[in-house]
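hi support,

uploading two proteins for the ticket. first:
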Amino acid sequence: MRTVAPSEVAAYEAALLRDEAQYCSFGDTVHYLNPPPIFERCEGSYIYNAAGTPFLDLQMWYSAVNFGYANERLNNVVKKQLDTLPQVASQYLHPTKIQLATMVAQDAEKKFGHKGRVHFNVGGSQSVEDSLKLVRNASNGKSLMFAFEGGYHGRTLGASAITSSYRYRRRYGHFGDRAQFVPFPYHFRGPKGMSKEEYGSQCVKQFERLFETEYNGVWDPKAGQAEYAAFYVEPIQGTGGYVIPPMNFFIELKKVLDKFGVLMVVDEIQMGFFRTGKLWSIEHFGVKPDVIVFGKALTNGLNPLAGIWAREELINPTVFPPGSTHSTFASNPIGTAVGLETMKMLAETDYETMVMDKGAYFLDGLKQLQKRFPIIGDVDGLGLALRAEICGQDGFTPDKAMVDRLCDECMKGDLVVNGRKYGLVLDIGGYYKNVITFAPSLHISKEEIDLGLELLGQALHRVTTSR
């Protein structure tokens, strides 16, 4: 780590930013602040800038670092693997690939009652691409998919085609796996006068209408064939603003999909690995997926590794033969070693109880802030996936400008608690980019939750009293 004297910090960072402006592509990142912050080290729930100011991170790299920065147990696995088998070509086997796949597949069989297999790649988008090949193959080449409004599945060509934001594909044309986007039961912005469960049922009924006759466009009743291969779902919408559906929604939706032979592909890239209090967030909703895509927190952000689990009849070597997809670094030994240790750690600790308890505590704190600040139109959460929707004074009209100002205040690093300066790292999501999505470390303490709520309250006070 580069140690910078306080008197040198400004010059040091200015020099780095000049080089970044000249030599770095901006296509692989988004700067939400100007100038963008530069961080030097991390530990637990905190990242630190060159001046040594702690920033409490309540988004943990978009839920990639579920188990805290510099987690000693997981870091030590990486160090050990570096000294034993850091690299091996992908056509050869190494123990942790087999052991990790076995743990994931056996867990899925126990929970969902289906035998299946695990297929690795180096990132979430790449694994989404692999799943697209899988479902196209299983459906005799059908390239059309259903996906949700507000859904996000990545920015590679195939993944962006099933991501609802047109801006991610506008300049590149369409790949082939085009999606028909279906409304998600976003109750806060749904019809008034309906319960959450009633709205969920209405959304399913509207979707099922597509199959009523051949003239609704997706179903051939004579052949008994749907034009669409699969429905890509995030059980809890991630980039869409941590929208949590009613508990009856996916049960009813899966019945429709099974009736018309459409596969359910569950994207757990952001919500997997106990973010919501379950290994997979779909477990909360009582359905059996056909395919699961996972990534991010599998390695706690230490190594690019992701993958898919699929039912045996979709992925066995007879139907999905060797070489169906490939990446030089898929199932790399450092990634599979730390992923295996993550799964062992999850099996040894009651993460479900811990996450649900902390999540309820955090949600209660957000509700208390909502009482103090009318601009918080909605708060909700499942486990440690929580949301606060920032609105106008009416508590409903989206206010993106206000949430931008709020995040700017939090990143100044000058919020003070007990005489110490802090920053607060938040993430913005939502259909109108007006939702703060909270994804703290699953190891966050209640004292750190209290600190986060205090810092957020200070920032809210600033932006609501300086209009």
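and the second one:
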Amino acid sequence: MSNDKISTLRLRRTSQYINRFRKFKVYIDNTQVHEIGNGEEIVLPIDKGRHELSISVDWVKSEKYEFDIKIGEEVYLLCGSPIKGAKLLIPFIPLIGSFVPNWYLFIKEV
């Protein structure tokens, strides 16, 4: 099979102070397919069609990111946590993330 027939998902995780020692679980269509470490990039083969991607750390899960992919196409996404600066000092941030997922974890197109 030639490489132009393989569809891929390229997911890069931001490097950050918060969660730096923890891996995020990566879910495609509600199935855990991989883990991604701080500052890491993973490339996953994926079937053509419509998919949902989400990430989680501990009990906090991101909102689902929906995307379509064609044969031979590559989708490039960025994930991480927007928590930085003074927000790092708030002890109950992960609890807030349980109720407002995009406040603690994000997925966006690059």
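thanks. also noticed: Residues 3-109 form a domain with the Immunoglobulin-like fold (CATH 2.60.40.1120).
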